[in-house]
Amino acid sequence: MVDERVSGVLLHVTSLPSYGGVGDFGPAARGFVDFLAAAKQRLWQVLPLSPTGYGSSPYSALSAFAGNPLLISLEVLAEQGWIGWDRIAGLAPHDGPADFGRATREKLPLVDEAAANFLDRANEEQRLKFQKFCNENASWLTDYAMFTVLRRMHQYASWHEWPVEYARRTGLSQLMNEKGRELAVEQAVQYFFSEQWCALREYCRERDVRILGDIAIFVNYDSADVWTHPELFELDENLMPTRVSGVPPDYFSATGQRWGNPLYRWDRLKERGFDWWVARIRRSLALYDIIRLDHFRGFEAFWSIDASETTAVNGQWVKAPGHDLFQRLKETLGDLPFVAEDLGVITKEVDELREFYGMPGMRILQFGFSDRGSHLYLPHRYVPNTVAYTGTHDNNTTLGWWMEDASEQDKINVQAYLQPIEHDGEIVWAMIRAVARSVANFVIFPMQDILHLGSEARMNTPSAGEGNWTWRFNLDALHPDFSKQLAKLMELTDRDGYEAPIEGIEAGQPTDLASKRAELGTSI
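Request: output the structure for the sequence above.
Response:
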């Protein structure tokens, strides 16, 4: 499908107008998929579905393998009989910003209650299915369940602050004996996540919609991954990070960005055949149809910062074994549907790595109007093996960019390149049309752009410490005119999945194109 000419929408699950404070896999998700189908959108791009830590950022995960319990629909659980409707009455309404704090306080205990009911009431067929899930995911599920129970036992302190027998994993046998019920509940919660997400994916498939998922290159220090596999990360004898991730100073930040994730011990990963990464990608393939690799640049070389540094200024580039990793993934898992997030300052070596494995890169139209050096983001510079966006979750909405962020020179260049913009609202569809008409195989529109929303609907401002990830829309906003307008544009730009038959050949009939051209006297 990576080679097809298709279009899609970027909307994280938490932005759905679901019951319980944040978006989930329930009725609102299916309503959104119906909208995608009506608008002839064949991709739904989501952000990472992992359980989140500080700040509720999907890129700040407690596990690279587990699913976020907040995305589980209580309405679906009630329909299945695992919890009573009376128990979920009075939760946060469908509208308004996502309220992660309230959902954590009020919704998560009900998810746990439903999981406990499942363990007590499941019939033999359901028990066997649950056991199969546990067996197939044993490489991460048991450790994640223990990590979650221990976090709760220690008031959600980081794992390195736990008693030494737990921080160094020497007292886990006793934990499993004493907390067996709680561990089973956490496993059942992950089973609920898997079942509901798989059902939603099937609903998408039936409507010819595929999921474009996202995985962050690094993992949090306070995560089940680092706690379980400290030998795979650059930690000292006290299990503290020695060097951490980030990016160097650039046009946007004089001190760079110090992300703080522990860096991988790539030498050890390579010795082990990249087993952890193979398992991670295998898990991602169970969740997504296509996988976006965030910060692809870091697979060729990464910015390494001493953990004692407070900024990213004094770091250094260190080579990563990207070729070895992707070759191993290809040998183990076959050809993989990767998309490379290759934004920012990209070197020739990064381009060569991406192109060697046939991965499409990304282009953001908003970035294309500042000066001649930015023109690679304009449609005339695209190649087919590209995913083109009007903007992403890290950018302002198109209307917000035009009204607040675009310089006067940007606006002059937009007027020259696209069309005269007489009214501010015209910028959104002008940008959507521009990427839709391009040669890029994939084009993605943030939901906020489809709804013509401004800065108030921005999903994330990377430099802001709070107020991110909370935007949600109302299903009433999905006016039929939006889907009709999008569907017509997809037809005209050949992104609707329709393949016009050659004259004299009925649609659907296999065709030997070379023979047909010869028959018609057309040179090949």
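Residues 6-360+441-519 form a domain with the TIM Barrel fold (CATH 3.20.20.80).
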